[in-house]
Design brief:
The complex is a heterotrimer. By secondary structure, chain A is an alpha/beta fold. Chain A is 49% helix and 15% strand. The radius of gyration of chain B is 26 Å and the shape is elongated. The chains are: A alpha/beta, B alpha/beta, C alpha/beta. Chains in contact: A-B, B-C. Strand 9 of chain B pairs antiparallel with strand 9 of chain C.
Amino acid sequence: MSDAPVRVGLFVTCLVDLFRPSVGFAAVKLLEEAGCTVEVPAAQTCCGQPAYNSGDKADAKAIARQVIDAFAGFDYVVVPSGSCGGMIKEHYPALFADDPALFQRAQHLAKRTHELVSFLADVRGLERVRAHYDGVATYHDACSGLRELGVKQQPRKLLAGVEGLTLKELPGAEICCGFGGTFCVKYPEISERMAADKAADIAATGADTLLAGDLGCLLNMAGKLSRLGNPVRVHHVAEVLAGVSDETPPIGAPARAEPR
Amino acid sequence: MQATSHSFKANAHQALGNANLQKALHLMRSGFPARRAAAIARLPEFEALREEGKVIKDHVLENLDFYLETFERNVVARGGEVHWCRTPQEARDTVLAICRRFEAKTVTKGKSMIAEEIALNDHLEQNGITPVETDLGEYIIQIRHEYPSHIIAPAIHLVKEQIAQSFRETHTNLDPARLLEEAPTLVAEARAVLRQKFLAADVGITGANFCIAETGSTIIVTNEGNGDLTQTLPKAHIVLASLEKMVPTLEDAATILRLLARSATGQDFSAYTTVSTGPRRPGDMDGPEEYHVVFIDNGRSAMLGTEFQDMLRCIRCGACMNHCPVYATVGGHAYGWVYPGPMGAVLTPSLVGVDEAGHLPNASTFCGKCESVCPMKIPLPKMMRHWREREYENKLSPVTYRSGLALWAFFAKRPALYHTLAEWGARFLGAVGGPRGHFRSLPLAGGWTAGRDMPAPEGRSFQSLWAERQRKKAT
Amino acid sequence: MKEEARSQILGSIRRALKRGPVDEERQRALDERLANPRPNLIPARAASLQHAAQVDLFVAMAEEVQTTVARVSSIAEVPSAVADYLAQSNLPSRLVMTPEPQLDEVPWDARPMLEIRRGRAEDGDAVGITGCFAAIAETGTLMLISGQRNPTRNNFLPDTHIVVMHRDQVVGTYEDGWTQLRARQHTAAGAFAIPRTVNFITGPSRTGDIEQRIELGAHGPRRLHIVLIEDAGTSP
């Protein structure tokens, strides 16, 4: 692991900010333990994907400019989400293709931006975390992280080093869970069916825990599992890697222990 | 073919509840992707060949006029004829005129999506000519009066029992007591029935997977041999080809053929890949007396030079729909026209208009699987997004959605205001939903909560907790 | 109307590409590409092998797709190989044979119970025998061409298709097949005189249209059998 202190700007993501701050704090913990100083610019709200994927380029650009400005000057920008990370890394430069100055700044930001787990493994050279988790976990590969950012082996590698945790491969791990951001709002019936298929695959593994690197996917899958009465514990992978998963109830689970 | 793409949501709703379709789609899900993966695992050069294929097709598109004219010259030099059709109407009229010259009563057809696009069969029937689909899947849907639900496997939405039922209802001269339980029996019956049609046909119509400019040849790729019997036995062979099927040389075709079958069905090569050039030669013992290539534009030239040009690289392999998680739940008919799945989502609005087909590029999670398996490296999600941009600019998306988006964007561009709302939202929803941990129903989120619970927020926003943490550190 | 449609389509293409008709420079480059093409990226699977290994690869790939292959050491053994195959498969010994020189060289009289009709296949012919132009090792694919002695329907109408070939007809790749065909069939001026039909046949006819289960014998032959003569024969 590199010794030089690095200045990381944390891109929180709108879902982590609203639904599950624990993921943000787990990310901070992991980054600090990996030798980074972490700051959280206040002038951030969202990466702009909802506007971008709805064809609203004007708002997408405005929000992107906001992000570019807020994150100027950091050595790295780290995101606990493959989809927001992909938006910044792959799509911001494309958004500003006709604006040379902004294009350059977007490219500069893109180069410095990483999804959390791949940052820890590939950039910080993290081999093993000091964490404990009792359970059999299965891992869902969120689409953007997988296909845009190449996040595949890194979470599996780091999870393999978590004491007490057994990893069971999810058949169809790479198949979309049906969240798709605006998709689940526009086509809820199809989205729900995709979530049901994913829940069936998860149940078939016999795992007691579901992990992934994207909160959108996790809310979707947890919501379906909960409706089905399946007690599989759902966490963001950062929570397990940081060893803080017992500090917060699993996603969708009650605040206090309550019989379901 | 009349489009019902505007009813995509209703179509999808029906599809989700169709037990036979769901059973059939499950078979597809466990079939095609695994076979494709096995085939490309055995060809280390596959990735490099994808790039080669893309380069060839991009080159053709940049010089499409040259290659079309070269092709035409070579077809004519070998005794064939080329017809240029701007619209489905012109193409239908051209084909009908040729059939009439041969006083055709029966016309056999190899599988052609272009024929579906121009609604050829109805036109022929209206003019007293009987078109007989000979690809087994196409034949099955023809006798069921359905449209194809997949560009390679048109009857993929059906289970065996439905096919047997249709055979019984159609082949009424056969013994009603006969057993039709098993696939081999069904195939054997179709073989016998269609053999008679092949022999009786006056004209044979096929599509073209490729048109070869250097020789004026057309290539069809089949597994059944129906395309070959269709083009060899009758007096005339008509080839329907859209403009972008063009490829410069036979060797260029060889490169793309290495990608096609592997991507489509997981075969290294199809059973029959046939290169046809012109009518029969003097002294030949068989072959058509006339060879006609009918070029159809129908919107292709309008896609050139636009952000949709890459779509013209498509070789109609079907890999995208085989791997699409949305297609896997609703099947092809939901898309409402000739081309389903991801490639249909991009192509259909170009051909029938985005107001008719607007749902299609929207019904995607942008998971990117299609792009990753496309042998021609077509950036499908990107082009679907372009359609969404066009819709947004033209205010074609629903008002509620646009206002919701505008409201959200208003706050997203104003961080301080956003953070206040987020904190209060987290506190409120966390308080209400916290004890149970989730909502069973939630106003404004009825679509979600109809089938899923909504996990409750933890109760504070990250930004406010972080600000508190920073303040504590400072003191 | 025809000329109008043609020029409108070409005009539409040129407008979209933001240029006029192909100019001299572009024409030269395009002619050059057609005349002197860059070699393809050829998979190593077959191309990296010596001929003997290519023959073995051809047989292995063909058998993978339900083609059956009988290897005989000389042309003299072909009649018995064919007769044995028909007997073992319970097939009639009446055959239609393409009247090509390669097959006429076979000493069919050695097996008089084989009733051979030379000519074009008709519906009802249970077994057809043809030669082939080449055999492509990379995917176990036969390359057959039409001609005055090679009606295309003989490859498709009979229920069983038997192909008699020599080992030196095996080539590695599709490109090799085209190179050989171009060399063999050209006009006096040197232009490629491509036959009416070139069939690439890889296994018997099949369909997956019923619940995606592969069934053989959809419309073309349900059996494809190759008799491969191992001695160096004369390629057609």
